[in-house]
Amino acid sequence: MNHPEGTRSLVRVRDVMKEHVDLVDRTTTVAEALRQMRHVETKALIVDKRDADDEYGIVLIADIARQVLALDRAPERVNVYEIMSKPVISVHPDMDIRYCARLFDKFGLSRAPVTKRGVIMGIVSYTDMVLKGLARDL
Fold first, then answer.
1. Is residue 5 part of a domain?
2. CB burial class (10 A; 0-12, 13-18, 19+) of residue 53?
3. What is the pLDDT of residues 88-129, one digit of tens each?
4. 3-state DSSP call for residue 124?
5. CA-CA-CA-CA torsion for 122, 103, 46, 110, nearest 10 degrees?
6. Contact (Cβ atoms closer than 8 angstroms) between residue 99 and residue 20
7. DSSP one-letter code for 88
8. Domain holding 17: CATH number?
């Protein structure tokens, strides 16, 4: 469906995000984290906060490939905290996906956790925004 300029329906992050995330502890080894991954489409692990004053972290599958596999490190000897990015940039579930895409572009992100009041609600990626958001009305 083609929409005249300015009449496209608003699509929010919550409409396209994946609600299921793989949450791991920072001291988990990469090997344990990979064994614990429950969701087939997982491309990232969210690293849980130590406490209420801490921040979430993220480990992309690409990080594991670059920092463990390519360097021939033993996944049983690498802890998630050694390769994670922290603090992670998160987005609000009510954000318009057009602004989310701009945020991703500005900061070089491919995915981000969706948080509300500091609690993980899901994860969103460029793929989710394009295939579940932009393409849904085409």
1. no
2. exposed
3. 999 999 999 999 999 999 999 999 999 999 999 999 999 999
4. strand
5. 100
6. no
7. P
8. 3.10.580.10
The CA–CA distances, whole Å, from 134 to 2, 3, 29, 39 equal 11, 12, 37, 24
> Is residue 108 in a domain?
yes
Domain ranges, residue 49: 13-137
SS3 136: helix
Return d(Cα 55, Cα 51) in angstroms, integer: 8
Give the number of other CB atoms < 10 A from CB of residue 82.
14
DSSP labels, 33-86: HHHH---TT--EEEEPPSSTTS--EEEEHHHHIIIIITTT--TTS-BHHHH-BS
- The first and second tokens of residue 114, run together, are 């969706």
Q: Is residue 105 part of a domain?
A: yes
Number of domains in the chain: 1
Type and span of the H or E element at 28: none
The answer to whether residue 4 is domain-embedded is no
Q: Give the mean model confidence (pLDDT) for residues 59-76.
A: 96
